[in-house]
Amino acid sequence: MKEKLLNNAGIKIISVLFAIMLWLLVVNTEDLIITRDFKDIKVQVINEDEISEIDKVYEIVEGSTVDITVEGRRTVLDQLSSNDFIATADLGKLSDVYAVKIQVLPTKSSLKDEITITCNGNDTLKVELEEKETKQVPVTIVTQGTPANGYAVGSDKVIVKSPNIIEVTGAQSLVKKVKEARIYVNVSNVYKDFELVSTPILVDSDGDEVVGAERLKVSSDSVTISMKIFKTKEVDVEVDYVGMVQDGYVVDSLEYEPKTILVAGLEEDLKQISKIEIKDIDVSGLSGDFEPSIDISDYLPDGVYPADSATVVNVTVKIRKASEKVFEFTQDDILLQNANDKYSYKIKEQKFTLRVSGNDKTLNELELSDLAPYIDCTVLRESKDNIMPIQLKEVDGVKIKTSLNAVVTVEQK
Q1: Full DSSP string of 311-366
Q2: Which residue, 36, 180, 317, 393, is most buried by CB atoms nearer than 10 A?
Q3: CATH level 3 topology of 133-227
Q4: Which fold has domain 33-122?
Q5: What is the pTM of this model?
Q6: CA distances from 82 to 106, 187, 334 (A)
Q7: Fold of 232-321
Q8: Is 255 helix (H, G, I), strand (E, B) or coil?
Q9: Cβ-contact 287, 245 below 8 angstroms
């Protein structure tokens, strides 16, 4: 038995060696050296201060991402993804043509000896340099939606913003596009004051978001807003003019829109206002149509604000050449006012011709009785030849073109 075991030792050694060789063959077959591609690895820019120190800003024009090929053992590469690599471009090493080589390394230092990294195609980051500019822009609020019925958002005067101005810094060409920092606030169905913190959006003169705004630095990326919600009230608008148009012309008509305005304020402030009176449209010396736009804010009491976008009253004053109308009357059509019962009065028989001017509509409707010619007896003395002016009642839109006198005899009874 002992001899059998000794005689089989050689066979056992050969078997062990064969097993080792077979294992090595299998391992080498399954864990071959292979390559694998990883695409769109974002390039991180370092040493940006090198650009800031020369008071410039940069914009990447090429090489913001990089593709690589990695060589290594299959068992190693099977465990990797794009997140296991970091690509950097050092702006402190910019060339004269504003380019720098991209460096790609594994995030784990233990992989450095296990793999080989090669950039595919472009391995260079290129930038453009531009003058840096700083600009202050206002913070504006744009409300969206409609408050609860009977309520309105307060005007700009009562919307508190902090900060209300923001500094924007970046490439000169981009900064120049920024007009304001806008915040959109949803006020649907609100009925009481509220406060919120929001991030402003940089917009251009057309109200569109500035393309590339993410490359700009702002002094504050959050704004606190306090919104005031007021009760509303609809009030009538009344408009009239002052002054005299050019001689020979008349105001033919005055039209305006809107006829009512919705205002907002605290309940006690709204009690102060029942209508909006705009009675100072000056037509002095005019001979043609006049179309002013009047901001109602100037006619509202303290604490009352426009409740919607209709803050302007558009007025149209039509001015035409004056028409004339002639009235003929006698002494019998003249009234004696303030007569004294101790005296008798007699107006000398005479025909009177009266010329007046105005617009067609007013003159067509005008009667002599509307002008009510009269003589004031207060200043008459006992005499046969009191020469007295015939006075006329004022009628809107009518201008007296002639002056008339009458002879009045006054005798004691």
Answers
A1: -EEEEEEEEEEPEEEEEEEEGGG-EEES--TTEEEEEPP-EEEEEEEE-HHHHHH-
A2: 317
A3: RNA Polymerase Alpha Subunit; Chain A, domain 2 (2.170.120)
A4: RNA Polymerase Alpha Subunit; Chain A, domain 2 (2.170.120)
A5: 0.54
A6: 10, 45, 108
A7: RNA Polymerase Alpha Subunit; Chain A, domain 2 (2.170.120)
A8: strand
A9: yes
